[in-house]
Amino acid sequence: MSRSTPSSRKSAVPKPKPGRQVATATSGRSSKSQARSASLRALRAAERRAAIVEAALEEFTARGFAATRLDDVAKRAGVAKGTIYLYFADKETLFQELLRFSLLPLIGELGAPPPPGVSARAMFESFAEVFVREVTETKRADLLRLLISEGQRFPSLAEFHYREVVVHGIAAMRRVIAYGIERGEISNKALLDYPQLLMAPAMLTVVWQGLFNRFAPLDARALLRTHIDIMFDKGNAP
Amino acid sequence: MSRSTPSSRKSAVPKPKPGRQVATATSGRSSKSQARSASLRALRAAERRAAIVEAALEEFTARGFAATRLDDVAKRAGVAKGTIYLYFADKETLFQELLRFSLLPLIGELGAPPPPGVSARAMFESFAEVFVREVTETKRADLLRLLISEGQRFPSLAEFHYREVVVHGIAAMRRVIAYGIERGEISNKALLDYPQLLMAPAMLTVVWQGLFNRFAPLDARALLRTHIDIMFDKGNAP
Amino acid sequence: MSRSTPSSRKSAVPKPKPGRQVATATSGRSSKSQARSASLRALRAAERRAAIVEAALEEFTARGFAATRLDDVAKRAGVAKGTIYLYFADKETLFQELLRFSLLPLIGELGAPPPPGVSARAMFESFAEVFVREVTETKRADLLRLLISEGQRFPSLAEFHYREVVVHGIAAMRRVIAYGIERGEISNKALLDYPQLLMAPAMLTVVWQGLFNRFAPLDARALLRTHIDIMFDKGNAP
Amino acid sequence: MSRSTPSSRKSAVPKPKPGRQVATATSGRSSKSQARSASLRALRAAERRAAIVEAALEEFTARGFAATRLDDVAKRAGVAKGTIYLYFADKETLFQELLRFSLLPLIGELGAPPPPGVSARAMFESFAEVFVREVTETKRADLLRLLISEGQRFPSLAEFHYREVVVHGIAAMRRVIAYGIERGEISNKALLDYPQLLMAPAMLTVVWQGLFNRFAPLDARALLRTHIDIMFDKGNAP
DNA sequence: CATGAATGAGACTTCATTCAT
DNA sequence: TATGAATGAAGTCTCATTCAT
């Protein structure tokens, strides 16, 4: 192996669509209705962009930033090399955009307003469930790992996630903790200073699954259940 | 910059030794005493090797595997580029060797025989203290982050660490947990199934400090203290 | 910047019309009067062509042939990139056409029939004045520089200008010289063999102004006046 | 033709040495004498550098800066593509260095101290002769044309030549003119203000030979002789 | 006719690895 | 054993040209 990639050359990641994309049959031209054709074009553009992002996700998560070849991204997306540059200024922009906007929706989902009158434990159980369903069992886990791996080398990216994701996540955790303390579900008030402790097992799961799942699969749900049992006193639960 | 690294070129990492290493004048050969000169040479060789590994550590942790240039490693180590190949087969070998043997000693330290009659909490407190002192506040934290970042792309490396480090660590955690349950310091027996929970905050600290310390410094010791307070019932502590 | 241009990317040459050209609303077709609409269309076509040539002039003179991007020409002309190909076969054709027809009119102006009975000196003074007014102080100087710069690499272009411009210019110079000799204004008959000497200062001016005007502005008119004083004996002048 | 070059692809300029350079038989290693081997290496480096510069000269003068491929320069120099980067930072540096140092020696030659008691005409005749012999009939003419062609697009280059070459040349011309006026060889004192007029025919020759020599060869020596006859009164000549 | 998204060949540049000294 | 000059494969990015709309 010559340059720098650890594993096999030529796309260790299996590529699903070898030829040109299916293109969802746009060849039939109605020849009038400029507006529709314009929106069609816009639609096509959006599709292409999405294809590129999707392909980039696969390649970047499989190889990391430096070892990913835009050539491979293009092939996987079913576009020419130059096409990528119609949508993204350069490799780094594609990479950052991918990471920037992929984890954002999570915050919305995780911060969904809890049903009233519910226990703190139930609130966090809901968090955990969403995390498992929407991250652990999804490509988002790969994205999170990618962020953990490359964040240090892209300070602006780290900052973005700190501000847009982490700060809100920490705040949410703190609210749950405060609520739990208030309701007597959580006894240790120092937890308020380290709300990260609530998320630590979730993060560990993501890292573990990336590195060691091959050798020792980890049941995220069960692990988090145990975590919850430890963090919350059962007293006030039904 | 064209290829792949996000930040500045030309060694973002400050290099301590600008000129060629002092090299302690080896050119004048005394021409007798082959045995001593042989051992001297071996010593010199060992030093060189160590210098290369040390330099590689700096560069790899600062840039990751792919973006690190052997040229920079050589410069930092004070040797010629070709010299690296006298000690390591190639870039990947150097990288793996670096990671393979750098974290091993930890297991010994962490697995040091606990003083008899001590509480489970005290045992884990000792663990935590060693971890903070020997990892968090050391270059080992960088190595751990490097492992987390690149492990997925070097399966053999991940396997090595799983077998040589993680398995033992998990076993040690489990022993502490069992002991804690036995002594009544730990009430939740399910923890025995997920000893990772004991380590999760430590790992979170390492990741956090790599990504977010700039924006929100994290006090590893205090965080772990809180963690310990939660995991261990205080009843039986002195 | 990676490829080839020395200075700043993104059009160092200031572009006058930022948005799309006004285009004088051609979309509403009155659907009758085909003849007039045809001529209108022809007019529109001629305008477009002219806009492209004008834009090409700016860009080519600013960057040279190879470093000029048709994309920039199109933007500056207010047309789409593809439109250029409706009027010109390719980049080189556009370039050559630009150069071919831009300098031709000069020959007419420079070869204008001199008022009868005038001195040779006056004839050449008139040449010089036209040259200063119509070349030196005009974009034509840029075109001349462009020809000088790229002519060697476009042999057919050099040949064209030799035949269509230079030959006539040389002939005109020779006529002036012969006339001057005949009238006793020029004493050195060898000048007839090197009529280029009459034009040399004009050419030097164009080159100098392209390269060094920043550091040492050159007054074309005054320089040529001195040149004339040297070439023509003052005896017979009024 | 695809990208940008006007004429034929694949090196219009004939390449003399297809294989690896002759390398002047350095294979015989004397195995001792480090100093000599070091100087040998230095010698080799100097040769290589020279080969690259020489090749670059050919290619740049044949195609201009933008259209020259470093690949071709490397092939012509008999080195690998990467080798160029051991000696020059990038394409532009190679180009500028080529131009910067190739014309400098001229100033020395042209500014050689004139024999005492000689006429101004003889001094300038000597200038002219050196110019013809060392520029017109040499590759330096190509370099001068290259400078004229690309100077506008490399402001620093134009400035360098203005300061290092032109200023001195102009000063030398002015000295000759002053001397000629003093000796009564030159009558028009205004020439002191436009010493460029003395050089104009030389420059015209270089440009002409680049563009039109194919169609109308120009005898530089004869043209300059006529020029001299016109500029200098014959009175004081023998 | 006009558009401009898409293409893909090709240029510059980097850097792991080799090998003569 | 150590060196570091040399190599050349490979990657990123550009831009002339095409073509469906």
From TrEMBL, chains A, B, C, D:
Residues 69-88 bind DNA. Gene3D superfamilies: Tetracycline Repressor, domain 2. It comes from the Bacteria. Residues 1-39 are annotated as: Disordered. Pfam families: TetR_C_11, TetR_N. PROSITE patterns: HTH_TETR_2. Keywords: DNA-binding, Transcription, Transcription regulation. The keyword Phosphoprotein does not apply. This is TetR/AcrR family transcriptional regulator. It comes from Rhodopseudomonas telluris.
